[in-house]
Amino acid sequence: MDFFYSKNIEGKNIILNKNEMIHCVRSLRKKINDFIYVSDGNGVCYYCKIIKIESETCRLQIVKKDKIEKKIKIHLFISPTKNHKRIEWMLEKLVEVGIYRITFLICKNSIRKTVNLDRLNKIALSAMKQTQNCFLPTIDDCLSFNDAFRLIETNEKYIAHLCYDNIPFLSNSIKGDENKCIFIGPEGDFSRDEVSYALKKGFVEVSLGHSRLRTETSG
After folding, report:
1. How many Å apart are CA 180 and CA 174, to the nearest integer?
2. Nearest residue to 29 via CA among 64, 60, 2
3. 54: how many CB neighbours lie within 10 A of its CB?
4. How far apart are CA 25 and CA 133, in angstroms?
5. How high is the mean pLDDT of the chain?
6. Is 206's pLDDT higher than 80?
7. What residue spans of the chain are helical by DSSP H?
8. How far is residue 101's CA from residue 93's CA, in Å, rounded to a whole number?
9. Which tens digits make up the pLDDT trace of 86-124?
10. Whether 132 contacts 37, CB under 8 Å
11. pLDDT band at 175 (very low <50, low <70, confident <90, very high)
């Protein structure tokens, strides 16, 4: 079944915008009385019938509604990689596994300090539709390391780094069913001062394994 996205929901009807309409009607040749699935990106999936096709929109009638609850919300804070293509690859995989939110960190050792947010949002939407995942993550633009702490909404907080050895593995440190956030640094890792600052803010330092991973793989 074909899968689309819309937040324009009016009672028993959903409106597909121009881009989604073009994909639905012109690319996939859907017509009036055909059935499709639509998600609002917040865990709700609608089974709909096409009832009206216009020049720039498509009106749907909701037949069935299913709500999926996300038990654990993961907020990833990560420094953008020098190569933007690697960020895009990472984002696709994060959407596929159901990430809740992504915030890009600018750290002392960060090389890239900007991201193409419009493109990343389009890639995230495409990945959500391709995998028929009903959750579209929030993607935050680049923030300085210190400013990022104001976005944290959970008590379960981890920072992965390579500043020294004998750090417990994340898999051994993870707790129960609480929401979680994790900080991943740039190619040059977090500085010791950044790690110390996070620990003072209640973070738990963790290792992601014995191998030295690329930033996007860590994410």
Report:
1. 9
2. 2
3. 12
4. 22
5. 93
6. yes
7. 18-21, 84-97, 117-131, 170-173, 192-200, 215-218
8. 13
9. 999 999 999 998 899 999 999 999 999 999 999 999 999
10. yes
11. confident
Q: What is the distance between the terminal CA atoms of the chain, rounded to a whole angstrom?
A: 31
Quick check: helix, strand or coil at residue 107?
coil
* Predicted confidence (pLDDT) at residue 15 exceeds the cutoff of 80: yes
Q: Tokens 């860590």 label which residue?
A: 218
Q: Where are the alpha helices (DSSP H) in 73-141?
A: 84-97, 117-131
User: Using CA atoms, how far apart are residues 135 and 95, in angstroms rounded to an integer?
Assistant: 8
The stretch 181-203 carries a mean pLDDT of 94
What type of residue is 7?
K
Threshold 0.85, pTM exceeds: yes
Q: Which DSSP category does 79 fall into?
A: P
Asked whether the beta carbons of 111 and 82 are under 8 A apart, the reply is yes
Are the C-beta atoms of 34 and 49 separated by less than 8 Å? yes
pLDDT in tens, 52-61: 999 889 999 9
**CA 13 – CA 10 distance, rounded (Å):** 5
